[in-house]
């Protein structure tokens, strides 16, 4: 029941790290959207391992096949099933995990919950599950790009890795960096558009890797082109659904929108975003709200941040217990990322796109279906 | 569609700040729970205005009536409807807001979304809506207290107001404060169990009030007694549903679980929670995970934090625009809290209880209904 | 969890027959719909007891109050709460039912399910619960009447009572009766627009009443003005959602759409509805499909039928058992309808309207939000 | 959004008749259920075409692969993805349908709804979609068989084909036929356990086929071993969810539970099911209710019937229109069943099992998770 996301643009992901494959079913997609496997592959390639020398060397091509829901290049409005086979399977690499719980992984909690687990590569708790999200997100992103009068741009990037942060702080309008282009984000392996910082981040990640250790980071995600009115009071506020979307990602520990935790350091007078008339349109002078007020988009740039903890897998001996609760040791093995955050960038964008398309459809449903002149 | 929360223990709230009243319908409540209006009133009294000299002087008794679903003192298993009439209505206090948008409130976004709004007291976007949540949460808290073998305790409190914070930082096991009692939390008007800090916070809030300004804060919420196994991979992770629950509260800007944003400053080696055998039971030696791993509770203390921005209502002239987009000024009026955070404490606990009861029922449904020996 | 209906235009009903009242919360209503209590009261008056000499003589005024969601005569887009107080309470009339199960009522099953029940008047299983549906349905009907280019008309009426049926059978286009007006339906107490048949039905109902017995009947519901395209494959077919809506009504035992069970007597050649061009528009020559093909409306008249069993309450001694399973007798008492079907007519229309508004919003959400030229 | 079914035991089907394949994702399955592809294949083989000389001669092996959610022969509690490739693809057989609408099929309504359709073999509206349901239903059936103390048996069979019906009528306890065994149902190609009637039905179907015509029928589905208490008032009554499940099947036109439409011919006195004590247990003396009262199972046999219209595809010239609305003719072609009902038997059982497992989990969630002694 927990593998379905969205209310109208609804996805169901399936698959374990080392089972027969990974996939997603997208239900409720608007019809007549031009869609090909290349659209999906582009985003999957941004997510897959082995892209650069700071990610895991696992060789996974992660090739997507659209099995249903598209006909002669256009979506049918019926469920779109996308599958990605697993590959590069080395079960022997996981033998020790069959009986021992990896610290700060989901081994113990899955075992407690279900009384069973697929220990190979983390099974369902593996980040490979996010392949389905990225595939679905690629569709959502294309809808936002092509389907609305004002194309919506979503851009996520890395703002911090361990103790390395893009210099400067948020101004009254949010991140102190111009809205980056995709090219700027993709320019470095670490997906930080500030190239000086990117270099330091890469060095820090390599250092962690060399020590058999790992580091985390912060992703900033920004959206421009959103119309006002998206988001539903009370429980399904736009930021609430975004928070859920982001905290549903592996390794996430925090979410903040707009001024976030930093808002606590300001007073109301300092924090409020005054309304102004800019060229005949209502805008806010500042944007500490982060593009959302009362749970509803206000037409300003939407921005939010997500904290990712350091990767739980480290190449070191760690104390742990086995299935019987006996204390033992586990040697970290496998081919893992010393920092997952760069590969999480397209995942964050995907979840964002899924939330936005869903809310846009909800807004149209309630406020655009009937009119009472 | 956005006023329904939960999948099995499901609530629907209704009501505007200045309409005919506020209420909630709780659907899916377990039968035979002893329940009286006093159970609900206790929590509503913690939430209502006018409790102390640092909250709004509005006089609202917020008296709850259980209209259905309880018979001879026990829940029937059918929907429990609870209503709270509105009172102390002063429409003239809101006349100016009819045509002007209050900065950093939801006036503009509601108007953009719906083409109409009830401007009196913020209408549906008012924090009065949370009355329904607290009433439902009171039921959920009683279920958690009475209905499980190991009673679950939920305790939220204020950790920070503006620049005043409880001294010290999280240790490897989380908050550097012993799990507080309800009495310790309720001892001061600001609901900070550290009495020295509470005094400073109260002073800071009064200072803000005297300046016609406002401040925000951080609430820490802690839960002990949870069994392992609650939370559903992938999208409905326990922390994802908690994040959504918290970000659905007015004035919230951030959420973090366990080590949260602070996790980014640690390496994997420093951050991982090793498993140990303590008295025959599996535990983690440290608790940077915050009681949840892979989206599922691990039996350790669950803790998370929520950032509340400074109250948007300030008693000052602010630049804004009117319905036609003309620039104008709005004088802050009304009887508002210079800091909403103390009154948010029972609301945070309520949302937490709602999420936990729902997930507990989901766990039992999937893993406790059928058995295959 | 079973008291919420609809996906986008979503209602939650609450209340027992003899508790504090009955009500409904309507979430997701389009904004700016003119709405007053009179709109709702009109339909409630059609449903309430005591309308005529063939319904129960219970005096229930069933007066609706709109408590939220409407401002200055227009819907706000936020939840609309409607309450109806209970009245004419005679608990002594139900004393015997506290310990004995009424045959073919829900007493035993509620007790089995919940281990508790409110025995007074059937509690939650009472047909009084449908007040909430009718109140919500009144809103949905108004939306369909005012909100779309081609106003949608919904007309339900009684086609059969016990062994009395409107003469004639369905033709190739459905019911052998011209689409009735509201006035024709309301002309008789039995809500059968064929006045000769109505007279016989009334006589039959009175006869049953005089014998302390009861009778059931069949309602036909017809809708015209629907656009093609409403209904969602696969599971949420229009007729599937209508079937669920109808079988969720007390005392219903069957549902059929279009040719229904009668279709089995025809061959494919006889049954198929050929397409024709009528005045430049695509139509079907016949309408055995009943306005829906593959789960989606085709623009023809939608028609379906619902079977209601004879009222379970009869004024006779009946064998039964008590809470301990001991065999005993129960004397039927109370003021009940010898035939519930006439009062079910507005309820059927309401459920129909709820389904149609919901599906219309779903259609617009998926196919009207985005366009890819 | 319409391809997801169930609230806790939730399935999402995907696939078109002539796309890349058909499949289903089952989310919320209890863990540790022994499950193999053979379990699924058994039911798929009952559904697939080419089983006998009265079904379509299309050669479809419909071989199921379990791609995820099962590990070492046991379910993991995570989503189970099952895929079935399409085969025997003859696009040229459908060329004419690209521009012409088949009468009483979903071609026109899909085109109206989506502005596009996959015309080959009916695309998503094809009965091939039910493969996913049967695969998921096989899992649900196994859960009901193995997972509960009192094994639940579900048996559907054909009661009527065109004008051939099993002789006799329902008695006070329901169908006038002893609860059939699977062997009795499978003994004839028509799946009617009364062998004399079966022979006549087969003859009638062959006659229709020889005339290029088609016939429909009625399926009776019976369930024994259900505990009391399954089903949720108000909207999610057991029979309401069953009605929705059945009316979501292609070619269905009606549903009735227990006495169904026949109840209208009885009076309350004749129809009521009196309670008795049978061997220390509460039962009803008769079972016109069909095992459900007030929407909740009462422990008696559950039985209901579904009407299937005659197959829309006939091998005859039929008048129709083309995409532009021009009147034209369409020659029926393809390899279709002159009567779909025999192959619908396992589909009906599958949908029944899905509803029952879901409701059982819901019952346990609400009434079995917490206890208040």
UniProtKB/TrEMBL annotation, chains A, B, C, D:
UniProt xrefs under Pfam families: Chorismate_synt
Enzyme Commission number(s) from the entry: 4.2.3.5
Single GO molecular function: FMN binding
Swiss-Prot/TrEMBL keywords: Amino-acid biosynthesis, Aromatic amino acid biosynthesis, FAD, Flavoprotein, FMN, Lyase, NADP
Lipoprotein as UniProt keyword: no
Pathway: Metabolic intermediate biosynthesis; chorismate biosynthesis; chorismate from D-erythrose 4-phosphate and phosphoenolpyruvate: step 7/7
Gene Ontology biological process terms from the UniProt entry: amino acid biosynthetic process; aromatic amino acid family biosynthetic process; chorismate biosynthetic process
Annotated positions binding FMN: 124-126, 294, 309-313, 335
Catalytic activity reported: 5-O-(1-carboxyvinyl)-3-phosphoshikimate = chorismate + phosphate
Gene3D superfamilies: Chorismate synthase AroC (3.60.150.10)
InterPro entries named among the record's database cross-references: Chorismate_synth (IPR000453), Chorismate_synth_AroC_sf (IPR035904), Chorismate_synthase_CS (IPR020541)
Amino-acid biosynthesis as UniProt keyword: yes
Cofactor entry: FMNH2
Residues annotated to bind NADP(+): 47
Class of the enzyme per the UniProt entry, highest EC level: lyase
Cofactor: how bound: Reduced FMN (FMNH(2)).
GO terms for cellular component: cytosol
Subunit structure: Homotetramer.
Annotated PANTHER family: CHORISMATE SYNTHASE
Family indicated by similarity: Belongs to the chorismate synthase family.
Chain's role: This reaction introduces a second double bond into the aromatic ring system.
Name of protein: Chorismate synthase
Organism: Cerasicoccus arenae
């Amino acid at each position: 029941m927990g593998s379905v996301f969205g209310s109208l643009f609804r996805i169901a992901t399936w698959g374990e790290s080392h089972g027969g494959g990974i996939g997603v079913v997208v239900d409720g997609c608007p019809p007549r959207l031009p869609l090909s496997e290349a659209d999906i592959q582009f985003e999957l390639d941004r997510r897959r391992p082995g892209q650069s020398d700071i990610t895991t060397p696992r060789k996974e091509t992660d090739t997507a096949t659209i099995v249903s829901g598209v006909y002669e290049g256009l979506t049918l409005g019926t469920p779109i099933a996308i599958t990605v086979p697993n590959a590069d399977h080395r079960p022997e690499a996981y033998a020790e995990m069959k009986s021992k719980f990896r610290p700060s992984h989901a081994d113990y909690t899955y075992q407690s919950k279900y009384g069973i687990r697929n220990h190979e590569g983390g099974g369902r708790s593996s980040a490979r599950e996010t392949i389905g999200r990225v595939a679905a997100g690629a569709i959502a992103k294309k809808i936002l790009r092509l389907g609305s009068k004002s194309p919506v741009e979503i851009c996520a990037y890395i703002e911090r890795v361990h103790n390395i942060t893009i210099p400067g702080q948020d101004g009254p309008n949010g991140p102190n960096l111009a809205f980056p282009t995709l090219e700027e984000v993709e320019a470095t392996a670490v997906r930080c558009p500030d190239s000086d910082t990117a270099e330091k981040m890469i060095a820090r990640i390599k250092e962690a890797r060399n020590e058999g250790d790992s580091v985390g980071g912060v992703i900033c995600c920004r959206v421009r082109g959103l119309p006002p009115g998206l988001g539903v009071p009370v429980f399904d506020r736009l930021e609430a659904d975004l928070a859920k979307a982001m905290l549903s990602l592996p390794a996430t520990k925090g979410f903040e929108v707009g001024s976030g935790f930093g808002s606590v350091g300001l007073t109301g007078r300092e924090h409020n975003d005054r309304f102004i008339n800019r060229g005949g349109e209502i805008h806010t002078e500042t944007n500490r709200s982060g593009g959302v007020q009362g749970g509803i988009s206000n037409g300003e740039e939407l921005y939010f941040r997500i904290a990712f903890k350091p990767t739980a897998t480290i190449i070191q001996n760690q104390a742990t217990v086995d299935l019987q609760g006996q204390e033992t040791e586990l040697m970290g093995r496998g081919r893992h990322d010393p920092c997952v955050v760069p590969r999480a960038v397209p995942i964050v964008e995907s979840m964002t796109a899924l939330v936005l398309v869903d809310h846009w459809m909800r807004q149209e449903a309630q406020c655009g279906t009937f009119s009472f002149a």
